[in-house]
Amino acid sequence: MWDPATYLRYGDERSRPFHDLLARIPADRPRTVVDLGCGPGQLTATLATRWPGSRVLGLDSSPEMIEKARELGAPVEFAVGDVRDWRSGPDTDVVMSNAVLQWIPGHQELLGRWARELPAGAWLAAQVPGNFDAPSHRALREVAGRPAWRAELLPLLRAAPVDDPADYAALLTGAGCAVDAWETTYVHLLPAGADAAHPVLAWMEGTALRPVRAALDAARWADFRAELEVRLAEAYPTRQGQVYFPFRRVFVVARTGARAEENL
């Protein structure tokens, strides 16, 4: 289960890649704009502001997220659904997928299908976290691999579920698109309160730790969380009252039915 409040603890930091991705989509008057994996909807609502004459759709598999999104009252059609089942319509001109595809095994095939099925001249934009070799995830895998948790947790963790920018560029070029792909490492400055959980732990509770929390009862989760927090505090020490948290992101923007030599 997704918890919108936990996910939005670091809303500004989590939203920055979305806006950087959106800035690279030069669509003028798209007919239909789709946000696949829209979460609690705040970012999807900005699409209706960017393209006020367009039909904007937001899809997410979490009923809790969609309930939160609908409370915004934005001019967006929000619906519960699995992005793997989504198919584009003939008037779908922009598709965004922000920090979603890393949860889908074999998402490369899905991304290629979207590119092939979209109408010519449509825009397909995706962003995925590329931090699976970061100290935070290495600490998570190390603690999960200890005897107390190994059997339950190791099968739930993913070592490297995303590709590098060049791989996504090759995939979408092969699907007949003109492609812009890049990566960025943000350094998030997370406030560290004396009586609060380590901020990287709090960040991970909104995303990477969800399957771990779901697999453990309350007592075992408390033990796991405490041990992981020790490791995270070592990897990300507090300095000047905050933690400096590097976070790599991978981006790709593709225009369908375009020649590879065209500029985006």
Task: Describe the fold and architecture.
The chain has 264 residues and is an alpha/beta fold. The protein has a single domain, classed as Vaccinia Virus protein VP39 (Rossmann fold). The protein is 38% helix and 22% strand. Strands 1, 2, 3, 4, 5, 6, 7 and 8 form an 8-stranded mixed beta sheet that branches. Helix 6 runs antiparallel to helix 11 (218-235). The two termini are 38 Å apart.
Descriptive keywords:
single chain, 264 residues, alpha/beta, Rossmann fold, eight-stranded mixed sheet, 11 helices
Précis, in short:
This protein has 264 residues and is of the alpha/beta class. 38% of the residues lie in helices and 22% in strands.
